[in-house]
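Re: that chain you flagged

S.,

Sorry for the slow reply, it's been a week of failed gels. I finally had a moment to sit down with the sequence you sent. For the record, here it is as I used it:
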Amino acid sequence: WSSDVCSSDLLPDFYIAAITAGLSYGLVGSVSTSILLRRWFRDRLDVALSICASGAGIAAFVMPYVITCLVARCGLMMSFYSMGVLSFLAAGLIITLLKNDPKDIGLEAYTLSRNHVRAVLSFEKEAVLSNPLYAPLQRQKTLYLVPFFLGAFAINCQSYFMMFFTERGFGGVKAAAAISVYGLMLLIGKLSYGFLSDARGHRKTSLLFLLSAFFGVTLCCFISRSPLMMYLGSGLAGAGVATGSVGIPIWVGDFSVPADYSREIKRFQLLFAGGGLAFSIMPGIIADRLGSYMFVNFVYILFFAVIIREITTAYRRMRAVR
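Prediction finished late last night. Pasting the structure tokens below so you have them in one place:
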């Protein structure tokens, strides 16, 4: 339907299409998918979250080429219709194959028998966290700064990096190449996060990816005229931003009472989006007031320092309880 109204010449129809597309994106975001995956996966949930999150990254690489070819061969209107039909087909396939609960079609949640010890630990964690006094989100309210600060960077960093790299004297081609490196490392980060988390644990994996973002932004302060530092910094930052799509559902699962997961994941995602919206105009304001986008880097470094402190403190308190 959005594709139909986008082909109209009336401006209000474009507004309706944009609103519909935004609502649709929100409804199929990480809130619904993370809740659904927790019903389908008892083990290897982290891997499932990573595969799900990386699908959007793969589409971001593939679909622009497909759409460009469609526009060149068939025109803009036909491209919108084609994307609308593809969306309907994908929705029909998902509705047909994926149910609200595996029990609805006579199946059980995915479980590895050899991973029984890991499953028992998970159940023990749920037993401990069933007491609200032990849940980090009940005792450590500053954890709500994590999604807000993370969203402030993750949602705006691509446009910010483009302006910052251009200000530092790099041409449009090199700056765009650095953004491509960022996107590639973001995809790799999303795909690897779950596997590492499943193998090495949530705390270590969270710290690894958050430090990647922290040092990536820090390296961008020293790019000077060196493209290598620019590519390395943007790549590390991209890998670290994977925490925004894969890390948040894992953190909410660890830090909240199991019965409150749905409410807390909605709250985290709202704060994540709110951070991105609130900080969308701040880089420009800071650059205008202080004379350079370099000072925005310092703000982002401070944000990640706070995020790392909050996440490590929460896991340390959980280990102390156990």
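What I noticed first: The radius of gyration is 21 Å.

Talk soon,
D.
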